């Protein structure tokens, strides 16, 4: 069986599997998935962060106090409820 065929069968299985089986399959690959989700390995992400730091440190962009950010986030969550 080709790798492509195996992938297709796995996709079909996961799409129709119950919660218990989905969680079991996920646990097999959990560490690998976490490694792929590391934003610090994404060059575009790192470049964006570097640019934002430079903009902030140069005074070109004004920061927002943490309390204000937190309040805005809480208000958005409340609005969704």
Describe what this molecule looks like in 3D.
By secondary structure, this protein is mostly helical. It has four helices and no strands. The longest helix has 18 residues, at 19-36.
Distance between the termini: 48 Å
Low-confidence segments, given as residue ranges, are none
Number of beta strands: 0
Structural class comes to mainly alpha
Mean pLDDT comes to 91
Largest sheet: none
Proportion of helical residues: over 70%
Overall shape: elongated
The radius of gyration computed from the alpha-carbon positions, rounded to a whole number of angstroms, is: 21 Å
- Provide a count of the helices: 4
Strand percentage, roughly?
A: under 5%
The H-and-E topology, N to C, reads as: HHHH
What's a concise summary of this model?
With 81 residues, the protein is mainly α. The protein contains four helices and no strands.
């Amino acid at each position: 069986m080709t790798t492509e065929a195996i992938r297709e069968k796995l996709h079909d299985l996961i799409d129709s599997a119950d919660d218990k089986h989905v969680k079991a399959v996920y646990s097999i690959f959990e560490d690998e998935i976490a490694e792929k989700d590391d934003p610090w390995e994404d060059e575009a992400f790192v470049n964006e962060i570097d640019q934002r730091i430079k903009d902030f440190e140069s005074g070109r962009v004004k920061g927002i106090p943490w309390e204000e950010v937190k309040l805005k986030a809480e208000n958005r969550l409340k609005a969704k409820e």
